[in-house]
Amino acid sequence: MTLDDAVVARHTVKAFEPGQTLPQDKIETLLNVLQNSPSSVNSQPWHFVVAATAQGREAIAKSTTGAFVYNEPKVLNASHVIALCIRSDIDDKHLQNILAKEQKDGRFVAEGAQAGQDKSRRSYVDMHRYEQRDLPQWMEKQVYLALGGLLLGAAMLGIDATPMEGFDQRVLDLSLGLREKGLTSVVLVSLGVRSDKDFNADLPKSRLPRDEIFTFI
């Protein structure tokens, strides 16, 4: 499948076929996509909870009741569900951990490169914490970069996917024990095989025309 084919064929799946499990090698590819997602100053302020079992999906489905009950079957009938989360803070321990991994991976060749990277990253974190006072929103933006890559990667692999913001964040955080880990949920993605009841599959994709969304200068 070409990239052009993938972006046209991709759609938000409205119903999954229960009991259909995706091949593990394809799941591993998508996990690789998430692990290697880009983030501002390589801050990597995320954590991904992968529900690959019925028990795991049920834990996530607790957050899709009440006003969000329409999303419950999309969680329970999926093959895998991924909760994309952000850290509650980018603390010194996290910054040191990233820097140590970059050093181990050989990213600092030039003299002073490690210190420069550390100073630059901390300046961005401090700017969003103290000046713009939008650190959680900044971290969320990085998660949505990862989400875009995940959805495109799934489309390239022929995997059906459903991104969801329709869930009770507090319930999910408590159900998965995220708060005691210094995390909070942002968005869910269900992965699986669409069923014949997926009405969205046969509808044409609709996007605004290029002359309305592009300006060439």
UniProtKB/TrEMBL annotation:
Superkingdom of the organism of origin: Bacteria
**Nitroreductase domain spans which residues?**
8-192
InterPro entries of this UniProt entry? Answer: Nitroreductase (IPR029479), Nitroreductase-like (IPR000415)
* Keyword flag Oxidoreductase: yes
Protein keywords: Oxidoreductase
The molecular function terms of the Gene Ontology recorded here are: oxidoreductase activity
Report if keyword Protease is assigned: no
Q: Which Pfam families match?
A: Nitroreductase
Record-stated family: Belongs to the nitroreductase family.
The record's listing under NCBIfam families reads: PRK11053.1
| Protein name as annotated | Nitroreductase / dihydropteridine reductase
Recorded source organism is Kosakonia oryziphila
Which lineage ranks, top first, belong to the organism behind this chain? Bacteria, Pseudomonadati, Pseudomonadota, Gammaproteobacteria, Enterobacterales
